Prior knowledge:
The protein is of the alpha+beta class and 476 residues long. The protein folds into 3 domains: 2-176, PAS domain (Beta-Lactamase), CATH 3.30.450.20; 244-322, Signal transduction histidine kinase, dimerisation/phosphotransfer (DHp) domain (Helix Hairpins, Orthogonal Bundle), CATH 1.10.287; 329-474, Heat Shock Protein 90 (2-Layer Sandwich). Helix content is 53%, strand content 18%. The chain has 10 helices and 12 strands. The protein has helices spanning 2-6, 9-60, 70-84, 118-125, 169-219, 235-283, 290-322, 333-344, 367-383, 442-452, and strands at 90-95, 100-103, 131-137, 140-150, 158-167, 329-332, 352-356, 362-365, 390-398, 401-408, 456-462, 466-474. The strands form 3 sheets. Strands 2-1-5-4-3 form a 5-stranded antiparallel β-sheet, with helices on both faces. A 5-stranded mixed β-sheet has the order 7-9-10-12-11, covered by helices on one side. A two-stranded antiparallel ribbon has the order 6-8. A hairpin with a 3-residue loop joins strand 11 and strand 12 (466-474).
Amino acid sequence: xxxxxxxxxxTRLTLLHSGLLALIVCILGVTFFIDxxxxxxxxxxSHLRARAKPIIEHWLYGQKNHLPTSDDLKQIAKSLARxxxxxxxxxxxxDKHGRTIANGKMLPEEPSPPSPNPVYYSQALAGKxxxxxxxxxxxxxxxxxxxxxxxxxxxxxxxGVVQLSSPLTSVEQTLFYHGLYLATGALITLFMxxxxxxxxxxxxxxxxxxxxNICQEISKGNLNLRVNLxxxxxxxxxxxxxxxKMVECIESTFEAQRRxxxxxxxxxxxxxxVLRGSLDVLLRGSQDDPAAVTRLSQGMxxxxxxxxxxxxxxxxxAKLETSTKIQKRPLNLNDxxxxxxxxxxxxxxxxxxxxREGPFVTLVVDPDMLKQIxxxxxxxxxxxxxxxGTITLGWKLIPNQVEIWIADNGEGISPQDLPxxxxxxxxxxxxxxxxxxxxxxxxxxVKSMIEAHNGHIEVKSQLGQGTVFTFRLPLH
Length: 476
């Protein structure tokens, strides 16, 4: 088993294919050989019986109106045995007690008859017509057939038995060449099958070899490599396609991680720089100026508050990505939105907020997390909508899910920014945006919270016309 495990997949598949082919060829060859042997022996037996029939009828039933008896058989036995004997066949005549009463062999070149076997001639004396068996005699196989002799062709009374024996030399010679041809054909088939199986297996696994080579290169850090087997639609082609998708996801994850680290460092560096500058000013003697101390202290407090908020959001994001412990419970969505609208109107700063109520539905969800999702999306809409704008909320039922949306008629999102708005610390470059300076983690948190509920969020936007955030949550 250890040796088998050390073999390559190509070698193992080739050996399995060749072994299965050899098994099938052997079974078919042996079956064909046995069937041919039985057919040749049956034909030989049928030929001997057919040749003996008219001779037996001539000697036994040649006299009309006379039923042959045992005594009649003794009188004609020698002549009958002689007529039934030929160069390749010898006949014995047995009486109804199984004793030999005549032997047809007279010439030296004629075969010697085998001794009668009581096991078989008793069957013939009992009236069985088809009694055939094979014995080994002088290093050759001999076919022996027994023919019961009846008073009439249809009589049940047996007066004796004819034993015909014929060497199977010609049959064995035919079978020898037949077996030789079968063995030669089987060997040729096995060699061709082994060669073709090796070539086909090598061709089929060539794509897998490419996957291995690409894996080795990727392990060195070359994440931009792909297998690219577009013409393969088999399992290896599907494996290569899935592998390429996996590497693409890994590459995008690493890229997002690099951007996240760079953006996080940038976000942390700004308030730290402000804090260090303020402390430098204080250390140089500004503490004697009460107004300067107050101004610097307020600025430092704002930056510390911003750092604390940033750390809290980073912790929330990390918890959502590493844990699925959310407090779900049944929630009446109609009552929930009525309470939410009441609280949301306090934040809209004069903007019009409209609720498009959907059907009555009970949703299994974490209420606090759903409220945070909606407040983050509402805050985003407020930042991108002027004071005369309108923000619309609503929901509707779809199969096994509920769809919730928040739409505004504000400035919209540029097509360049749209694919990246859910990335941590990403801020759009829209020059007309009135959005206040934030951490850039709000939408990333929204996406993580929705995915923690096995949901999905998407966004549609056009510059100057507004934005629609739509997310779907499972009912259960």
